Amino acid sequence: MSKNKDKLVIFDTTLRDGEQSPGASMNVSEKLRIAKVLEKLNVDVIEAGFPIASRGDFDAVFNISSNIKNSTICALARAIEKDIDAAGEAIKPAKSSRIHTFIATSEIHMQKKLGMSKKEVIDQAVKSIKRIKKYTNNIEFSPEDAGRSEFDFLSEIIEKAINAGANTINIPDTVGYNIPEQFGNLIKKLIYNIPNSDKAIFSVHCHNDLGLAVANSLSAVMNGARQVECTINGLGERAGNASLEEVVMTVKTRQDIFNCDTQINTGHIVPASKLVSSITGFPVQPNKAIVGANAFAHESGIHQDGVLKHRETYEIMKAQDVGWQENKLVLGKHSGRNALKTRLSEIGYEIKDTSELNILFKKFKDLADIKHEIYDDDLHSLISNASGKEDSQNYNLVSIKSISDSSSEPYSEITLEKNMERFNSDSKGGGPVDAAFKAIEKIVNSNSVLQLYSVNNITDGTDSLGEVTVRMEKQGIIVNGIGSDTDIVIASAKAYLDAINKLNNKANIVHPQLDHV
Question: Measured on CA atoms in the order 211, 215, 221, 222, is the torsion positive or negative?
Fold first, then answer.
């Protein structure tokens, strides 16, 4: 970053706001894995969760605070004492910590949701900020639904929040209502009109309901905001949040107009995108900017000719700069543990535990015996499905036999194991996958509802590793199950069991929070 450029702080909320996407709940270990990749990205602030929401969310924030050293760990809290105290306890182990508190400031929210007067809202905000000082001096305040708040009141509460000790002021477009020119002007006016605005960094948090989250965020940056709250792949509730990769690469690519820059290690963007997609079960659309499979693909003859002659005729970024690499054979069945560990480290995974490496190596060897070419995407999938030692309390797939015949109804036989006991079942179905799921249900009796079944091939070719995602709901708890195999029926059974095991271990599920910014 140029010495003459301001620093643009990147505040990643994939683990907090991104998790509010229906079905995107992550367990503690999955959250930690994503946090480690965000640390490799050199993200400035990681909003790790909402500790008061559940024991799982508290544990996730505490665990991330204990393990991440190079990013500031932030916990979200409503402007309520119990929220703040839970957040303070959760971030205690962090080398660098922050608490982010919020209260609604729009008329509709204050009247219909809070039932509070303007004075009561201000008093509550100031009181909460002062309480946060017990735990950290790095304090962020958000006037929720600022984009629809009355300007003079918004200015007043921000001025008093800064006086109370808030050093980051976040302006959320909570419902994605604003448009770029309007939102940029709001940031500019607030900074100009608030007497003590120079005592805080102004931040923005934009939702994508009208497809304008990134545009609104960048307009704010051009008008003085120096922190952007965003998520990997634009993950988030409803239509999502501003996409980290799009914000970062726009600022990096257009340094001719932005008087600021980030410190993001952009080479880790694609691995981060793949990991988040795999864990949450939300596939990245092929034409998604930066991280989509077609983002750097050219089919038009005119485009191909131009790129071959000079890349910049049709490419404004280098694919390698964001972590794309040409798919090539990097490992095979004769490769050893060290080669596997080294390659995993190169693509963003540090495996220090010997038992975890041994499990991964066995899975790698099993795959290498089936297919001749092992790609980076195969490794991403393998590690996303490896969780250390198998839990005897979980159902594990021992064997599956599927029969699909055009002249008869598809049929599956299943053998599962749990607590060293084996269970056998069989069923017919509308297809081999349906039959397998019905056979599993005869054993597990989950009483859950299958909400989504999705299949993606990890690499090209008829022997490619297929990845299946299932989304299941039971009593209001929504989980994703993921399984991969060169046989899609086996991958489907693994995904279904992964979801069943998560539902059976509810205590380890980090529940999406009810209140949000």
Answer: negative
353 and 459 inside one domain: yes
What tokens does 315 get?
């490419």
Q: Which residues touch 497 (CB under 8 Å, ≥6 apart)? A: 394, 395, 396, 397, 416, 440, 481, 483
pTM over 0.70: yes
Domain that holds residue 418: 327-517
CA–CA gap between residue 391 and residue 389 (Å, rounded): 6
Final residue belonging to a domain, choices 249, 266, 283? 266
CA distance linking residue 296 with residue 318, whole number of Å: 8
pLDDT of the chain, 517 residues: tens digit per residue: 666 789 999 999 999 988 777 667 788 888 998 999 999 999 999 999 999 998 889 999 999 999 999 999 999 999 999 999 999 999 999 999 999 999 999 888 888 888 889 999 999 999 999 999 999 999 999 999 887 889 999 999 999 999 999 999 999 998 899 999 999 999 999 999 999 999 999 999 999 999 999 999 999 999 999 999 999 999 998 899 999 999 999 999 999 999 999 999 998 998 899 889 888 878 888 788 888 877 666 343 433 444 345 445 545 567 777 766 644 435 777 778 888 888 787 666 778 888 888 888 888 888 788 766 677 667 766 776 665 445 556 898 899 999 988 888 999 999 999 888 999 999 999 999 999 999 999 999 999 999 889 887 665 665 566 788 888 888 878 888 888 787 889 989 999 998 898 888 764 555 554 445 6
Q: Is residue 292 part of a domain?
A: no
Q: Is 322 part of any domain?
A: no
